What does this fold into?
Amino acid sequence: MTVAVSVVAAAAAADDRLLAREARKLRRSGSLGVSGWIAIGALVVLGLVALLAPLIVPTDPNAVSLSDAYLPASGSHPLGTDASGRDLLSRLIMGSQTALVGPLLVVVASTILGTALALCAVWFGGWFDQAVVRVVDAIFAFPGLLLAILATALFGSGLTAAVAALSIAYIPYIARIVRSAALSERSLPYVAALRVQGVRGFVIATRHILPNVSGLIVANGTLSFGFVLMDLAGLSFIGLGVQPPTADWGAMVGEGMSGVLQQQPLEALSASLLIVITVASVNILGDRLTERSEAHS
Amino acid sequence: MSTLLEVDALTVRLPVKGELRTVLRDVSLSLDEGKTLGMVGESGSGKSMTARAIARLLPSGATVAGHVQFAGANVFELRGEALRRYRANGVSVIFQDARANINPVRRIGDFLTEALRTNDGLPAKKAEQRAIALLAEVGISDPERRLRQYPHELSGGLLQRVMIAAAVTVRPRLILADEPTTALDVTTQAEVMSILRRMQQNYGMAMLFITHDLELASAVCDETIVMYAGMVVERQASNNLHTEPLHPYTAALVQARPEIDRRSVRLPAIPGHPTSAYEAPEGCAFAPRCRFAQDQCRVAAPPLLQIDQRGVTRCVRMPEIRNQLRASTMLLAEGISREEVAR
Amino acid sequence: MTETKSIPLPDKLASSWAGWPTLRFILGRILGLLATLFVASIVVFGALYLAPGNPLTFLTQGRSMSQEAIAALETQYHLNDPIWMQYLRWLGELLHGNFGTSIVYNQPVSTLLAARAPATVLVIVMAAAIVLAVGLAIGAYSGLRPGWLSRWTMAGATAIMAIPTFVAAVVLIIVFAVNLGWFPVFGSGAPGLDAVYHSILPAVALALASVAFVARLTQAAIRQELSAEHVQTAVSRGLPRRYIVQRHIVRNAAIPVLTVAGLTIAGLIAGSVIVEQVFQLGGIGQFLVSSVQQKDFPVVQAICLTYVAAFIVLNTLIDLAYALLDPRVSLGRKSS
It folds into this structure.
């Protein structure tokens, strides 16, 4: 199965490099730039909101009051209410928690697993390397969303199964990048020099190679955060992810569909907007980090 | 013999990081029909940029002062169809890195015949015949098969021959050879060089031969120009270059290269680093590295001086130090070390 | 991740066996395809044993089922055999086109899928057409004409790439279905033109982010070719601009662009599940979601396997197309 996706993977990687190189040509400095800092600012604000959500929500996000459905914006409900009369602003604030924590867990887990796998593969080489390559290629054959749906079918709807499934599904992306970066890093003279000095392989891999590819790892993790967020929100949107009554942006877009048909699109639109802002910020930051890690290498 | 190419006081600036940097300063040269002019200098001295200016291949945003005349036409005023014709049949460029300069996903045959087919309207069959004949002429065996191969299937030496053949197919009046052999290994270099010479003579083309190899230039060219920091520092007949350099920089280059029949403990390197045109100091650009430099060298940019009928130099002290330079160069040639010369 | 190992043949051999490396390449790819399908089938089958509880209780999910139905399930999955036997039997049935029986509908899964497949295929094909036509056109245009318009287009493309499929679907519904009333909100329509009409909004929603991605990619690839040395050579030879654009710039940029565009289209398969759900197209994707909710595991298994198979087959086809487009690959060498 290595062959099945190999050239395609190579092409995808080549394409990533292409985009990055093109962008770098426009902006050679390697700094984050204005857009990068705006993205960081937006993400910091969103992160703080998610962290402090229980403290800053104006009202109970799950307090149902059917007589207050679709209230317009007012003093007590700054953004109005949803179909069940729940405060929209409070739900958006609470929803940031599930929307951000899920992708964060996936990115951390897949990055750690993928990096460890790739470094071991590069370090031990031989059949172990080939085995890792094959496993990674096999995982790549499953689209992340599909694996997550399969997981919810097995373990029941909810975030847990989906997060676990996506953590596995996103391993190939990071593992491929780290493996090829580490391979080219390993062929550099300084690694040979360290080996001659009798430095242990484990030390070389963790103390020397890993720090040198860390920029790449962070950039890639940032970029996949956006994709995972879209996958998880999509899953909640179709009702297989975060379960009601828990507030979640993706689920709110789904629940807001009935409002859409009744000319009350605010719930769906506001949650959509937050998703788009988050993903856009993460993507911009990821692009800048990629440029920077390439500029430094 | 009529003058084919005339470059007059050419100055080129390129935009780098928001500022215009001078890469060529007051470059003048002329080349007669059928003759070969060498251009020698370190990387960054402006050799390639001169060739690119002549072929109108300067990067966008470059500003140009001065003139380039080709067969009576002002090259910088050529537009549209006239510019295309000039590039198509006036000059051909042979680039250093044939592998990067030939489209990797098209066949050798496409590369060789595309100019004939699109510019001269030759039928495919005829263009192919001409390509096959030329491949044979540049010493490539089995040319019919080569036409159907892709660049990655050919070695660097073969590709450079293909490049030469492609440059010659359109029968240009001038060939700009930009370090055509630098990327090749030594034995291939000699072969490619002799092919290039033969083709030039067979078709009576003039050639601007760019190299960093002083020896090669003087072997191949009628006249040689030495470039430093975007300027012409010396121009004279090639066979005098070694025995009687007209600039301390050339003299230093001559002395800095090893020779088979000379034993020396260590090669005298030129102190300091080569400068680019935009960071060159006031006065003579070579002054900081020149052992003959005096205060007058650091004050004003030296003009081009005519030295007898021999050639021109950009060294103001040349009239006084000329004999000294010649003596040291000749002594070196006779196998006496530099330390002894200094004494 | 893996590089194709190259075994450069001697010149003579290569010319007399011109077709051999290509053939070997294709055979290798097909073997790889089969191997990946095999692994995918193991994963999908093994999923049953990953689930909490024993397979039978997982399959029945506490439904009150007749003895015959339970017996049928046991026969279908051969639950009394050793696991590897169960798998081989299941695989054998699959290869004979038997995808099992739906627990909820009590009908053959293959019949249920066949009825729903056209809606899914239609929306994916339409989205793919949009991705190729619009993405390539925008990318090529802004690649060949640098300037403020090109810069703003690319900035817009970056923003659009941050829009998830379901958000695009909801916004399209609000604007074009609810407010303007140009398109229906839900449903797949009658077969034929009506189905196409019903699939326009879903296809646009599904294609949107991919259009932006392909446009960006095309633009970058063309920019890179524009500054390539071989293009400079073509310019120095006085070739007409039109010729240079067609034969050198577009020809070379097409190789990575078509490959990645193809991959992007393969990626639409997973996204189609979501648009089908939003627009209630009644296709396989919507069936997958409802089967997950109704715990109809044989259907879930069959659909997952179908999707993965379609994804892998598409990937392999793109892989082969890439080799045909790029002469450097067909001879077993990896392009750099």
Observations:
- DSSP finds 13 helices and twelve strands in chain B.
- Chain B touches chain C through 33 residues (CB under 8 Å).
- The longest strand of chain B covers residues 3-16.
- The CA atoms of residues 130 and 213 of chain B lie 33 Å apart.
